[in-house]
Amino acid sequence: MSGSSGRRKRKIRWSKLYSYGCFRPPHTLDSDPGQQLLGQPGFSRVVFCNEPQLHKAKPYKYPKNYVSTTKYNIVTFLPKALFEQFRRVANLYFLLAAVLSLNSFAPFNPISLIAPLVFVVGVSMIKEAVEDWHRFLQDLNVNSRTVRAHVGGGLFVEKTWQGLCVGDVVKVNKNEYFPSDLLLLSSSFEDGICYVETMNLDGETNLKVKRSSEATLDLANDQAFSEFKATILCEDPNPHLYTFVGNLELNCVTHPLCPATLLLRDSKLRNTDYIYGVVIFSGPDTKAVRNSTRSPSKRSRIERKMDLVIYLLFSMLLLISLITSTGFAVILKSQMAKWWYLSLQDDDLLFKPLKPGVSGFLQFVRALILYGYLIPISLYVSIEVVKVLQAMLINKDIELYDEVTCKSVQTRTSNLNEELGQVEMILTDKTGTLTCNQMEFRKCSIAGASYGGNINNIDRAASKRMNVEVESYRFSMDEFETQCQSFEMFDFSVADVSTKKAALAGQKHMQNSSADCSRISSAEGEPAIKGFNFWDDRLMNRKWVYRSNLFDVTMFFRVMALCHTGIPVDGDQAHKLKYEAESPEEVSFLIAAQEFGFQFFQRSQSVMYLKEFDPSSGKMVERKYKLLNLLEFCSARKRMSVIVSNEDDEIFLLCKGADKYVIFINNGRSYQQATTLHLSDYAEDGFRTLAFAYRKLDAVEYEKWNSIFTEAKTTVGPEREEVLIEASEMIEKDLILLGVAAIEDKLQKGVPECIDKLAQAGMKIWLLTGDKKETAINIGFSCSLLREDMKQFHLILGKESAASNRLKEMKEDILNQLEGFQKVKSEESNKDAPLALIVDGKALEIALRSDVKDQFLPLAVDCASVICCRVSPKQKALITRLVKEHTGKTTLAIGDGANDVGMIQEADIGVGISGMEGMQVSFEHDLRIARQPTYSLIILFSFSLVSKMLMLFKYSFLLRHYKHLLLKIAQAVMASDISLPQFRFLGRLLIVHGHWCYKRISKMILYFVYKNIAFGLTLFYYEVYTSFSGEVLYDDWYMALFNVILTSLPVISLGVLEQDVSSEVCLKFPALYQQGQKNIYFTWSRIIGWILNGIVASLVIFLANICTLSTFNKDGSFAEKAFAKDGNVADITHLGAMTYTCIIWTVNCQISLIITHFTWIQHLFIWGSIIIWYIFLFIYGALPPDISKRGFRVLSEALGPAPIYWLVTLLVVVVALLPYFIHIAIQRSFYPLDDHVIQEMKYCRKDIGKNNLIWEREQNNSVMMTQIGFSARVDARIRIMKENLNQKGQLIYRSVTSSPIFRSLTSSPI
Amino acid sequence: MRQIGVCLSPKVSLWFENLSSSLLLGLNLMEVDGGRILKVSSGAQSIPRHSRKHKAFYQFTQQSLPACKPVLTPAWVITTFLLMGVIFIPIGLITLHASENVVEIVDRYDTECVPEAFRSNKVAYIKDNSIPKNCSRYLKVYKHMKAPINIYYQLDNYFQNHRRYVKSKNDRQLLHGLGYNDTGSCKPEESNNGLPIVPCGLIAWSLFNDTYTLIRGRSELKVNRKNIAWKSDRDHKFGKSVYPFNFQNGTLMGGGKLHPRIPLSDQEDLIVWMRTAALPSFRKLYGRIEEDLNADDVVVVNVTNNYNTYSFGGKKKLILSTTGWLGGKNNFLGLACTSVGSSSIFISIVFLLLHMKNPRIL
């Protein structure tokens, strides 16, 4: 901002522009009931401005401006985190087992139970700690931003945010965030107003005006603060964003303060050079912080189901423990007493034949611990590790990196990864999510002629597809019957389209747009000028001067250039200006006007200056327009007007507004009908339309009206608004329509494609927006949520019931409407006809009431798309919850503003758009933090604890985290589970990563269940052979290593790297995603199947080993026999090691059957695990017998040289895997699933080369059922075209058959 | 660094900048340095290329590591089953053959060795020390047995794997003798007159004490009773200077006694017995006959029937057995392999037929 424009701006009393504002009567003490409360409880805060030192001691000691979002601190971490961990049932069970294992009768030594538990809990806690550490760093980043604060003597120095104190006077510059809640003292504008963007707080994109108290207006420069002292008495900290009560005591005069004087933390200064403010609420007291809620911890569906599986396993555990203890008690009572070699004595409670019940019970407890391997202790920790790694890979995905904002996707909570693969409902916000809140001038219709192109993308894509089909028709000889006719028709339609194209010759974007169907939204090409995407040779480059109705065109441009509230700022180009205005629409109009040669370049208090292109002279001339009145936009009138007089003292009223509200009061001109037609065309393309009109006033009439208006403006009281509207309406009549302009609320890049993909993947998309209905419908069309042939239901409160404001009537109204819809729906002949529901906020409030929602929700869920407009943040959250509860489907909410926070937190998955805000955090600053060695050391240390494997990723973790620092996270992002830089990434996130993660996690859990059953049950079977005495087959070490080392890495590689199909194929076949929605990989039949598989495997393993070691006597009994050539017999150790070897082989080979994607990592882990087992066994055996005990030289001396050891391993592995192998062989050959077919096609290279048609056919089949989205819309259009063709064909046929010649030919007997 | 980054495609360079930023941060974890970027100048164009490590890491993060994706096509199914059959049937046949070559003579003697008069009360018989326990058994060799012939005793329904039993020993005491006084695990056979029993515990206490002498024709067969235990046990688990000086001196008499002058490492009967069997029916090596037995030889076994299995209904058997490369006689492995192999071939044929009948069309 250069000085000159600053000065220019300084001349304008902004408040005077808003013609109502300057006459607004000042607040008086008694007018506001809140003022009287001051000093009472709840309103007791005292702030000494400019004297922060007074706030260093009690009683005025307020918290520092340090904001903390961390869950723990160093002291509370241990108890709190431990408590969190042991809230998990499984962990509690293992804790109990560990405690019991300290007892003498426990089957294992305590270490082998405690170590895994410590590991499991430790890893989870470290994960918590690291996550909290990230939050801490993020806080640190925010807290160490700087702001200029007054240190005395009029000197302002940079101070960190956290160093701020209540009472500090700060100076905030343009586009900076407010460090805390400030009281506005003065601004760069004389009248002390400033503009504030509150996007982060409430999601509204319009700038808000804040106004300082009159008393402090003169504090306009740094020096003025050297002597400034004042006392503020105000309310206590509270979370209400829109209220504030306080008094400013300056020089013994009390001035009231209103909410308009309060600048809130998390909002941003806009359009204002600088402001001075005093800190009144700091840190945790600020309204923004008070308003934030910690996002609730969410658990994925699969994890919840996994709990049930764990319960199932637990009941299995109880069952076999019960069998063990009963068996033990029976044998103890009936037989064991006779076994003299046990020398049972009465002192041993564990084996007391006289009291078998007690011994049986103790045996039961022991069995619970012994068979604990059925409950996979490491499942939880493996899942945690896997999810963190998955999240990291998602974050690293370069395809999800936005080069514009330099941000990538951030999975903020990793425990919802697999939930991403099951989403069925997407609830999305509009502004900032689908659209980028940037308006572009796209088309206009002036005096009945439409400019800016006619064809929309849908037609273009449809015609292109028809072209292709014509080609294929030409080559197919089968359908020769209709061929000739259809040829002509197709050719005609294509020709039609191409003539249209030709008509718009010179339109640059047409060429590249038709080039590629898939690049739908980018088809327009990036406009050269931001906010102006308009191509028409008839208007561009001053060619409009040749139009016949030159006056209308000129007036049209004048309305654009004059009817607004914007101001020019310096542009980057020499002759082009940039503008700032309250709404982005106005900016785009100003830019468009500038392009057409009507440059608005200066505004003074009452004069607007234009540089106009004069058609007669062909030169730019400067013209002055006196601004007489400005009739502000209001929601009742839906239009705004200015009254200006030009240099010839002609007075014009220039008006722009919503079409309905402008056209209906114009006096009618010949081109009105044409304009209306254009309007509906534009609306279908999803453009926002505004009608322009003008009226010429004569001086007398104006004077008369002006006096009425001035009187209205000075009215005080509640009826003021109405009076003003009445006065405005008096003059805004008899308007002459000039035309309409179409503004595109620009969709973010790739949004339509993304929605298309999501729709094909079977997801339903609901649009929830705070915008008005028309805008919402516009966007619905532009991103293909709506299409022309859809039946639209509009659920809106009727005028009468809304006016009556009585609940009962409103309810009846809604119920009636719903009933009507149901009727229409049931009468609809075509059951698959797509329906759309459009609900208004007020109607929604009624519809969501408990007694109405049962009618409403089923209807809404049935509709292909639902659009809710004018909904409040609270309603968004409510809808989300109700939809989630009613349908039981996985919902995903996506939004960017703080108004979406409720929805994001309520949904199963909340996604935040990290947006464009806050990019300017200095990089050096972050590097400074990052360089501090202690932090990185702590991170290093904590990670080295996790496990060696994580070391590999440590560094990418760090990277992510430093990148993280560069982001200022908006509130929606803070509340979200995943943040995306752009909406378009949602497609890849869900369809690729979600799909993968879903399959990975479900396969992983099932395999875990399998492997623990296969292992745990062998312990049980062995009990049968030991008279249920509770002897353990395996060495303690084998047991401890099983889950921790020998089988953990392969399953982690399954969880992290498994891909059923590659990402490209995922995107080509979005229908694959439906596997996750139907949850076919984690059904109960699958779970039971895997449990049975585990049981079979354990039986095979155990029995084969027993049988191998035994010899069968003739009398049917069998006994252990010689083990190897030297005649020695195996003992428990050998049996244990053999069985264990078989288990390791079986479970590791089983996972290699599950994995379909082998990189070297999987190979390394799977085969490495098996090798590690042998290495371990060897090393363990080589240790002195004091340590290795029974395992001494077990491999080198006994097992290794024995051929049967190796032979039985081979046999067991094959037999144990045979059932599963046969199952998948049959399934793949005879009942293949979608992914199997695709895999096989890919494998046989059917996707490339000649057989491409099959590949495409599959692709088309997979998207057949979709109702919404771009492709579906194109399909529908093609269907309509074809129907038309058919009808024409039939018509011809009929005309031929009904012709007398034909009749005579057919009827004449031969 | 920056220059190189610029040459790369935007995405790659971005990723690369991440790497280089880690350098800036001084966190040189992956040993990233500029030197690893190789500049390959081929002709006029010089293309910057990542070193292999970088490329692999990039592929890893993008989940695009080269991978083999085996798909179970019908052809694979048929081949796999066929292959399994081809492998398993020969293995099974060889194993069966090996098992069939093992000659095994089993003789149960626990009931026969009780005199008729005591048959109704065997327990009283076995507990009465005054009655001589000698008994002779006649074994007929039905097939030529090649030396070495192992002599086993087999006990049935004897739970050596009972938890109370298994843990009732002290490994350290066995190795170091009285140096270790903590014999808590040996309960209830841990001490006698204030001194720990060596060797302590139920296992040692219940030592098997039947003895066998084998006579063929006139001459006594020499039974080698050395090297019947695992070598590692003898060398490392049982002390060379540990003597069972107070073994079986207690009030309650268990099984066999040990010679108090022979160190534990040479008491191989004990060592064999101390290897607790995995199953309730087990054999243990008694000794080896170092000469061949011919078919139709009759071997007279003089048994001293000391060990009490009568009180719990256990059986005692004497076994003479040769060993093959598979160890003792066992048909299970052979049968299992053969049946797995043949059923695999069967399944393979079924799949082949099904596939021929309605082949997969993609």
From TrEMBL, chain A:
Subcellular location: Membrane
Cofactor(s), names only, from the UniProt record: Mg(2+)
Reactions mediated catalytically: ATP + H2O + phospholipidSide 1 = ADP + phosphate + phospholipidSide 2
Keyword ATP-binding: yes
Segments forming domain P-type ATPase N-terminal: 47-113
Stretches assigned to the P-type ATPase C-terminal domain: 973-1232
GO biological process entries: phospholipid translocation
Enzyme Commission designation: 7.6.2.1
Residues the record lists as binding Mg(2+): 429, 431, 896, 900
GO CC aspect terms: plasma membrane
Pfam families: Cation_ATPase (PF13246), PhoLip_ATPase_C (PF16212), PhoLip_ATPase_N (PF16209)
Residue spans crossing the bilayer: 89-105, 308-332, 361-383, 935-953, 1004-1022, 1037-1057, 1087-1112, 1132-1155, 1164-1183, 1203-1222
Protein origin, superkingdom: Eukaryota
Active site positions: 429 (4-aspartylphosphate intermediate)
Membrane topology: Multi-pass membrane protein
Family: Belongs to the cation transport ATPase (P-type) (TC 3.A.3) family. Type IV subfamily.
Protein name: Phospholipid-transporting ATPase
Organism: Rosa chinensis
